Amino acid sequence: MKVCGIKLFIAGITQDEYNKKREQIDIDKYNIEQRLNRFEEADDKFETTLYALLDMASKSSALFDSSDSVTKRKIIKLVFSNWKYNNGKLEYDYNSSFKLVANLGNCEKWLGILSCCIFVIFMV
pTM of whole model > 0.90? Predict the structure, then answer.
Protein backbone atom coordinates (compact mmCIF):
# COMPACT_ATOMS: atom_id res chain seq x y z
CA MET A 1 0.00 0.00 0.00
CA LYS A 2 1.51 3.30 -1.09
CA VAL A 3 0.74 6.48 0.83
CA CYS A 4 1.22 9.97 -0.51
CA GLY A 5 4.77 11.16 0.30
CA ILE A 6 3.52 14.53 1.51
CA LYS A 7 1.33 12.92 4.18
CA LEU A 8 4.25 10.81 5.38
CA PHE A 9 6.51 13.84 5.42
CA ILE A 10 3.99 15.83 7.45
CA ALA A 11 3.64 12.92 9.88
CA GLY A 12 7.43 12.73 10.14
CA ILE A 13 7.85 9.06 9.18
CA THR A 14 9.37 7.35 6.19
CA GLN A 15 7.56 4.97 3.85
CA ASP A 16 9.47 2.08 5.44
CA GLU A 17 8.44 3.13 8.96
CA TYR A 18 4.85 3.46 7.77
CA ASN A 19 4.91 -0.03 6.22
CA LYS A 20 6.32 -1.55 9.41
CA LYS A 21 3.71 0.18 11.58
CA ARG A 22 0.95 -0.82 9.17
CA GLU A 23 2.15 -4.44 9.25
CA GLN A 24 2.19 -4.41 13.06
CA ILE A 25 -1.31 -2.93 13.14
CA ASP A 26 -2.54 -5.66 10.77
CA ILE A 27 -0.98 -8.34 13.00
CA ASP A 28 -2.52 -6.78 16.11
CA LYS A 29 -5.90 -6.55 14.38
CA TYR A 30 -5.71 -10.23 13.39
CA ASN A 31 -4.79 -11.26 16.95
CA ILE A 32 -7.64 -9.21 18.41
CA GLU A 33 -10.10 -10.74 15.93
CA GLN A 34 -8.90 -14.22 16.92
CA ARG A 35 -9.37 -13.45 20.63
CA LEU A 36 -12.81 -12.03 19.93
CA ASN A 37 -13.76 -15.21 18.05
CA ARG A 38 -12.63 -17.33 21.01
CA PHE A 39 -14.73 -15.19 23.37
CA GLU A 40 -17.75 -15.53 21.09
CA GLU A 41 -17.28 -19.32 21.01
CA ALA A 42 -17.06 -19.36 24.80
CA ASP A 43 -20.24 -17.26 25.00
CA ASP A 44 -22.02 -19.74 22.74
CA LYS A 45 -20.85 -22.68 24.86
CA PHE A 46 -21.90 -20.89 28.04
CA GLU A 47 -25.34 -20.14 26.60
CA THR A 48 -25.78 -23.78 25.55
CA THR A 49 -24.69 -24.97 28.99
CA LEU A 50 -27.00 -22.49 30.71
CA TYR A 51 -30.00 -23.64 28.67
CA ALA A 52 -29.16 -27.29 29.42
CA LEU A 53 -28.76 -26.50 33.13
CA LEU A 54 -32.06 -24.62 33.30
CA ASP A 55 -33.80 -27.42 31.41
CA MET A 56 -32.34 -30.03 33.75
CA ALA A 57 -33.22 -27.95 36.81
CA SER A 58 -36.82 -27.63 35.65
CA LYS A 59 -37.01 -31.44 35.42
CA SER A 60 -34.97 -32.17 38.56
CA SER A 61 -37.90 -33.21 40.73
CA ALA A 62 -39.16 -35.74 38.18
CA LEU A 63 -35.60 -36.93 37.57
CA PHE A 64 -35.05 -37.47 41.28
CA ASP A 65 -38.42 -39.20 41.77
CA SER A 66 -37.82 -41.61 38.90
CA SER A 67 -34.23 -42.45 39.90
CA ASP A 68 -33.06 -45.53 41.73
CA SER A 69 -31.64 -45.20 45.25
CA VAL A 70 -28.00 -45.17 44.10
CA THR A 71 -28.67 -42.26 41.72
CA LYS A 72 -30.68 -40.43 44.38
CA ARG A 73 -27.72 -40.70 46.76
CA LYS A 74 -25.41 -39.29 44.09
CA ILE A 75 -27.76 -36.37 43.43
CA ILE A 76 -28.09 -35.63 47.15
CA LYS A 77 -24.31 -35.83 47.60
CA LEU A 78 -23.83 -33.49 44.66
CA VAL A 79 -26.23 -30.84 45.99
CA PHE A 80 -25.86 -31.05 49.78
CA SER A 81 -23.02 -31.27 52.31
CA ASN A 82 -22.45 -31.29 56.09
CA TRP A 83 -25.43 -33.42 57.04
CA LYS A 84 -26.44 -33.19 60.70
CA TYR A 85 -29.36 -34.57 62.62
CA ASN A 86 -30.08 -32.10 65.40
CA ASN A 87 -33.05 -32.41 67.82
CA GLY A 88 -35.11 -34.43 65.38
CA LYS A 89 -34.37 -32.10 62.50
CA LEU A 90 -32.14 -32.77 59.51
CA GLU A 91 -29.72 -29.89 58.89
CA TYR A 92 -27.47 -29.48 55.88
CA ASP A 93 -25.55 -26.99 53.81
CA TYR A 94 -25.61 -26.65 50.05
CA ASN A 95 -22.42 -27.41 48.19
CA SER A 96 -20.83 -24.21 46.93
CA SER A 97 -22.13 -24.57 43.39
CA PHE A 98 -25.72 -24.67 44.61
CA LYS A 99 -25.66 -22.03 47.39
CA LEU A 100 -26.39 -19.12 45.08
CA VAL A 101 -29.11 -20.97 43.19
CA ALA A 102 -30.74 -22.18 46.41
CA ASN A 103 -31.00 -18.65 47.79
CA LEU A 104 -31.87 -17.01 44.50
CA GLY A 105 -35.62 -17.03 45.09
CA ASN A 106 -35.24 -15.23 48.42
CA CYS A 107 -33.24 -12.30 47.13
CA GLU A 108 -34.79 -9.51 45.06
CA LYS A 109 -31.35 -8.24 44.10
CA TRP A 110 -30.41 -11.56 42.50
CA LEU A 111 -33.80 -11.92 40.88
CA GLY A 112 -33.22 -8.60 39.14
CA ILE A 113 -29.81 -9.73 37.93
CA LEU A 114 -31.17 -13.11 36.85
CA SER A 115 -34.04 -11.62 34.85
CA CYS A 116 -31.60 -9.17 33.29
CA CYS A 117 -29.28 -12.04 32.30
CA ILE A 118 -32.14 -14.08 30.89
CA PHE A 119 -33.36 -11.02 28.96
CA VAL A 120 -29.89 -10.52 27.46
CA ILE A 121 -29.59 -14.21 26.55
CA PHE A 122 -32.93 -14.20 24.76
CA MET A 123 -32.09 -10.96 22.94
CA VAL A 124 -28.96 -12.50 21.34
Answer: no
